[in-house]
Amino acid sequence: MYDYLKGEIVSKQINSYRGSHIVIDVNNVGYLIQTNKRTLSKLNNGQKETKIYVSLSHKEDSMSLTGFATREERDIFNILQSVSGIGVKLALLLLDEFDISELVEIMIKQDYKELSRAKGVGVKVAQKIILELKDKLITWANVNPSDIIEVSQDNKNISQDNLIEVQSVLISLGYTQEEIKKAFKEVMSSNKDCTKTEDILKYSLEYLSKL
Q1: What is the pLDDT of residue 27?
Q2: Phi, psi torsion values for 33, nearest 5 degrees
Q3: Residue 56, CB half-sphere, CA atoms under 13 Å: how many?
Q4: CA–centroid distance for 204 within its chain
Q5: What residues are paired with 13 via a beta bridge?
Q6: Class of domain 84-136
Q7: Measured between alpha carbons, how far is 161 from 164 in angstroms, rounded to an integer?
Q8: Where are the beta strands (DSSP E) in the chain?
Q9: Quick check: 91 and 80 in contact, CB under 8 A?
Q10: What is the pLDDT of residues 145-181, one digit of tens each?
Q11: Alpha-carbon distance values, 162 to 17, 91, 113, 132, 151 (Å)
Q12: What's the Cα-to-Cα distance from 205 to each of 46, 94, 120, rounded to whole Å?
């Protein structure tokens, strides 16, 4: 229903009975949006035309908005909630503990021990999250090898397999082939030593978040 809200942040609360949240004024309407500390650290009170990417949660007796500074965080938040037993609170906690590249790297490596260091996430829960999410975050569908070959020719030190792996993750986040191709070319030209999967993903997301 909502993709983002754009307006002025009029208040931020880190610890309240409602948890961490912001109020954003959009055309004289105040929207209360729950979020986490990581997102709050990126936002400034009184900042004009702040864009907040939101997700609408609808329960039997209530509706609420959860917001993030980037589309990628919001999309990962929605994907996390697709795991049975993972609700808004735990998804927010995971995105507070780990940034996107860390979280995706954990899924790639299936490192449940690292995931379980987040507060409220035991070993069994961590294993369940990885089991249910790894195929969603690392999908090989609709990969176009010709784009990868073209990009990798510019840097012989980068494995095509690494690029395909990162491309698959970005596709699962909703990016188009053209956007991904532009991101790879930018990463290759500005980060010549960037060869690891997690680094390529990190810098690609940084580039795409600015589009």
Answers
A1: 92
A2: -125, 120
A3: 9
A4: 12
A5: 21
A6: mainly alpha
A7: 5
A8: 4-13, 21-26, 29-34, 50-58, 63-68
A9: yes
A10: 445 545 555 555 666 667 777 887 887 777 887 888 8
A11: 44, 27, 23, 22, 12
A12: 27, 18, 27
Enumerate the domain spans of the chain: 4-68, 84-136, 145-208
**Is-same-fold flag (4-68; 84-136)?**
no
What's the confidence (pLDDT) of residue 65? Answer: 94
Backbone dihedral region for residue 46 (phi beyond 0: left; psi -120 to 50: alpha; all else: beta):
left
For residue 28, the model assigns a pLDDT of 92
Asked if residues 69 and 47 have their Cβ atoms less than 8 Å apart, the reply is no
Structure tokens belonging to residue 90? 């735990």
d(CA 201, CA 207): 10
| Cβ–Cβ under 8 Å, residues 66 and 54 | yes
CATH of 4-68, one of 3.30.930.10, 2.40.70.10, 2.40.50.140, 2.60.40.4070: 2.40.50.140
Q: Residues 108, 129, 210, 168: is their CA dihedral positive or negative?
A: positive
DSSP summary character for residue 43: -
Question: For all residues of the chain together, what is the average pLDDT?
Answer: 81
Task: Please tell me the distance from the alpha carbon of residue 137 to that of residue 34, in angstroms, as a whole number.
Answer: 24
**And the tokens for 50?**
């702040």
For the cut 90, the answer to whether the pLDDT of residue 26 exceeds it is: yes
Residue found under tokens 């697709």: 82
Mean pLDDT confidence for 45-72: 83
